[in-house]
Amino acid sequence: MSWVEIISAVLGLSCVFLAGRGSKYNFWVGYAYNIFLFVLFWRQHLYSAMLLQPVSFGINLYGHWRWTHPREEEKNSKGELRIGSLSPAMWVSAFTVVILCGLLWARVLQWLPERWPGVFGPDPSPLLDSLVLMTTFVAQFLSARKCWECWIVWLVVNCANIALYISSGLYIMPVVSLLYLANGIWSLVSWRRKFGKRE
């Protein structure tokens, strides 16, 4: 257990708590969270999770802009970005991307330590690490677009992360992921209700 993991846990919990309540301030906390997670995952040789952070930072920027600059037809009664939904075609596309890109990236994770053994240690769970990475990208993109289904995907990500973190020797992050699960369930119910009311 390290101070980087402790700070990451606090930032992560703060970020998802704010996001679940529709607060645009979740993005500011999210930027710091990305930085600390990058350092944490580098130390644990979780390279997919580490490489996720710069991309996640970019998705956060996009989401921050979308949430604070909605088009007129996207605004709710408070002038904020209205909660949206996914079409069946988008679900199929997301699932296809996760599987195909996940399998490809898992192979890259196995190849990196072979190619540069002095830089990259062996990933303890390359396939799980890779599939979690791709599913997280989908969840973040849906969150940035404020689709209520993002919370379904986050629940899957958090369950997988618990297994991944335990297998990697992290102590606080599995507990944090359990708390994410609780917040995700609450947020799923809350966002689905608001979507139904077109708030």
Characterize the structure shown:
Helices cover 75% and strands 0% of the residues. The protein has 199 residues and is mainly α. The protein has one domain (3-70, 89-197). Helix 1 (3-20) runs parallel beside helix 7 (172-197).
Key descriptive features of the protein:
199 residues; 75% helix; 7 helices; mainly alpha
Distance between the termini: 42 Å
The number of helical runs is 7
What structural class do helix, strand and pairing data support? mainly alpha
Give a count of the beta strands, DSSP E runs of length 2 or more: 0
Q: What is the element layout, followed by pairings?
A:
Elements: H1 3-20, H2 26-43, H3 47-68, H4 88-115, H5 126-144, H6 150-167, H7 172-197
What is shown here, in short?
The protein has helices spanning 3-20, 26-43, 47-68, 88-115, 126-144, 150-167, 172-197. With 199 residues, the chain is an all-alpha fold.
